[in-house]
Every structure is written in C-alpha cells, then in structure tokens.
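lol ok so funny story. i was supposed to be doing the assay writeup but got distracted and ended up predicting the structure for this chain instead. priorities right. anyway since i did it might as well share w the group, maybe its usefull for someone
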Amino acid sequence: MVDVSEALAYLHHHHQGTIVHCDLKPSNVLLDGDMVAHVGDFGLARFKFDTTPPSLVDSTSTSSLTIKGTIGYIAPEYVVGGQVSTAADVYSFGVVLLKIFIRRSPADDMFKDGMTIAKLTEINIPDNVFQIIDPQLI
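and the output, tada:
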C-alpha cells in the first residue's frame, strides 16, 4: 500500500496539473514480478490544471454529470456533488486499506441502509477495533 500511496502522491502533486484517478480499487492495483504495486486503469481519470483559466478547461476534467467509479469506493461527497477531487481519491484509498484490515468488501451485504465500511470502522474505533479487524492479522 506504500507503493499505491506514493503513486497517488505523484498523481496529485508532482507535475504541472493534478491527475485524479476517480476509480481507485483493489482490481486497479497491479503487482509486478517483484511485488511492487502499480496503479492502473486510468479510464475515468480527470486532469485538473491549476494554472489554466477556468474558461479554457473542459468541464469533464473537473466534474461529471454522471457518477463514475465503483460503488463502495466512491467518496460520499463525490456522489452528492459530482465534483472530482484528490480528496475523493484519498477516500477510495482509505476504503482499500479498510478492505485489507477488515477483510470485507465495501459491497458486502452487511453494508446497506446507510452502513458503509467507513462508518463501521468509525463506530468501532477505538473501543471495539479488535472485533472488526481480520483475526489473521492479529
């Protein structure tokens, strides 16, 4: 996951504009022969250029009329407002981390009626953290 966090930091901060992945999930993290993780599938990625006047930027680069991404990994504010942001990528990264530690998919049947993997974690930390962590990790 360190490799993925470094990839996101590069996309978000280390060039003239910002690249927002918009669909970070486990199946978009690829491992090479040396077990180094690489972020892949940039089909939904959006480019944000901070130095370009807003009138010259294509509106699809900063927002979308339809929600694109994978259910369970999409940040709630992206679903409500449709605004693409690096914060939404960070949220998705957090969900991927939670999936690793809790060993449940955010699309699990238990996550319905407003319950999400993030909310489950929030409810159980710090007092009941060992009840939700994957026992094999403990």
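The chain has one domain: 2-132. The domain at 2-132 is CATH 1.10.510.10 (Transferase(Phosphotransferase); domain 1).
back to the writeup now i swear
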